Amino acid sequence: MSTAIEAMQERRSVKRYEDYVIPEQDLQDILAAAASAPSSWNLQHWRYLVITSKEMKEKILPIAYNQQQVVEASATIVMLGDLEANKTGTELFGYAVQQGMLTQEIHDSLLGQINGVYQIPQIARDEAILNTSLSAMQLMLAAKEKGYDTCPMGGFDKEAIVKALNIPDRYIPVMLITVGKAAEPARPAGRLPLERLVINESF
């Protein structure tokens, strides 16, 4: 079992995968770990559209500009962001009140804040992308810890995938993530030195 830092350091974007059927339990474990990510107001903006069948992988291949990892990987996961995550807040906080974990006053205050913010479409969109990306990173690290490789993909036709997979208007596709066993190592990728990346206190 690798440590969290080891998983981060060892993770690379793999483009070629073995013909391998991922066990359902492994996939569920990876998704459960991804779903434990933090999110604004705990609204859990992510949804995972999981594609494992050859037929459906072939269907989205041209949508992903014929990038072969989409069909070679054990699973291709469409990471979706929830544009109406405030509705989840109503469900979550209502349950918390019923269980005595939250007062009605705090419940009303929180929902008032959230519903007010979600009247602004750009904020709803930004929150969907931001929080889904947090879950996406956890998904890739969880996969690595369990011995799988991944590749996050932004190169696909978002409008086409919405139509092809009947994705409701409530959700936006944020990225694709392929998951599987590497058939060949990822291409080496350099990293900028830390002193190029860290700004202390102010520019």
Description:
The chain is α+β, with helices and mostly antiparallel strands and 203 residues long. Helices cover 45% and strands 14% of the residues. The protein has helices at residues 4-10, 24-34, 54-60, 69-72, 86-98, 104-117, 121-145, 158-164, 194-197, and strands at 46-51, 75-82, 149-153, 171-180. Helix 1 crosses helix 7, helix 2 (24-34) packs across helix 7 and helix 5 packs antiparallel against helix 6. The longest helix has 25 residues, at 121-145. 29% of the residues are buried.
Can I get a quick summary?
45% of the residues lie in helices and 14% in strands. A 4-stranded antiparallel β-sheet has the order 1-2-4-3. It is globular and about 55 Å long.
How many individual helices? 9
The termini sit apart by: 40 Å
Structural class per helix/strand content? alpha+beta
DSSP strand content:
5-15%
- What is the overall pLDDT average? 95
Rg estimate, integer Å: 19 Å
Strand order of the largest sheet: 1-2-4-3
Number of domains: 1
Runs in which pLDDT lies below 50 for 5 or more consecutive residues are none
Broad shape: globular
Q: Architecture, according to CATH?
A: 3-Layer(aba) Sandwich
CATH class: Alpha Beta
Which fold name is given in CATH as the topology? NADH Oxidase
- State the major sheet: 4 strands, antiparallel
The helical percent reads 40-55%
How many beta strands in the DSSP annotation? 4
Keywords: Oxidoreductase
Protein name: Nitroreductase family protein
Family: Belongs to the nitroreductase family.
GO molecular function, one term: oxidoreductase activity
